[in-house]
Write a structure and sequence with these properties.
alpha+beta; CNF1/YfiH-like putative cysteine hydrolases; six-stranded mixed sheet; five-stranded mixed sheet; 14 strands
Length: about 230
């Protein structure tokens, strides 16, 4: 097969199952329609979007969003953090979750799924999950204190953690590394989401210049928008 080329303006589109559509923007992408977003704080608050005119000010302090309104897109902003997009094709509900390393330790995806179960009658076994572009395990070098937070939170360290020896002076060489993709997959599976229903797009935002990366560019950089909606 020939090499696939894309423009920086192209959206990274996903298949979240029949009845929904989802995407992540690249650096220069334009949103195809409005996307409701919140003011994220790396916490665990989950908001139900029950009207199409909700603003960022309405959603101060929320890091995950659930919506059952056809045609209303919800999204989370990332620049190395993990976006988790969920779709229940049975109950016709979608969710967007911002799960940075702090949110992952706090298991924010669990909070979102629990609210989907409680308020909408969703069954985790019905959910389709997408784990979008984020900082990859080769690039997510952390200190011992971060490793301890994951260990204390009960994560399977043999799965998500590696120690790569002394640093050799090159970026992200050696030291402790955490795999946030697998950490979030483990959370989803613990919630009851089937492994076969979880799609990981293991694109490393730190090494792929078509996506924003706070670690590569600084925290003032732009953000990738990760959106999902029920098709109207």
């Amino acid at each position: 097969m020939g090499k696939t080329y894309f423009s920086k303006k192209d959206l990274l589109r996903y298949d979240p199952g029949t009845g929904a559509e989802a995407f992540t923007t690249r650096r220069d992408s334009l949103l195809p329609y409005p996307v409701i977003q919140g003011h994220q704080v790396h916490g665990t608050k989950v908001a139900v979007i029950d009207r199409p005119d909700m603003t960022r000010e309405d959603l101060e302090g929320y890091d995950a969003f659930i919506c059952a309104l056809p045609g209303v897109a919800i999204g989370v902003r990332t620049a190395d953090c993990v976006p988790v997009l969920l779709h229940d094709p049975v109950r016709h509900v979608v969710a967007a979750v911002h799960s940075g390393w702090k949110g992952t330790v706090l298991k924010i995806a669990l909070e979102a799924i629990s609210l989907m179960e409680r308020d909408f009658g969703c069954q985790p076994g019905d959910l389709r999950a997408i784990i979008g572009p984020a900082i990859g395990p080769d690039s997510f070098q952390v200190g011992e204190e971060v490793v301890e937070k994951f260990r204390d939170a009960g994560f399977p360290m043999e799965m998500i953690h590696s120690f790569r020896g002394p640093r050799d002076g090159s970026p992200m060489s050696g030291g402790h590394h955490i795999d946030l993709f697998l950490a979030n997959k483990w959370i989803l599976e613990r919630c009851g989401v089937r492994s076969s229903n979880i799609s990981i797009y293991d694109i490393d935002t730190y090494t792929d210049p078509s996506f924003f990366s706070a670690r590569r560019e600084g925290t003032a950089c732009g953000r990738n928008i990760n959106a999902i909606r029920l098709i109207p």
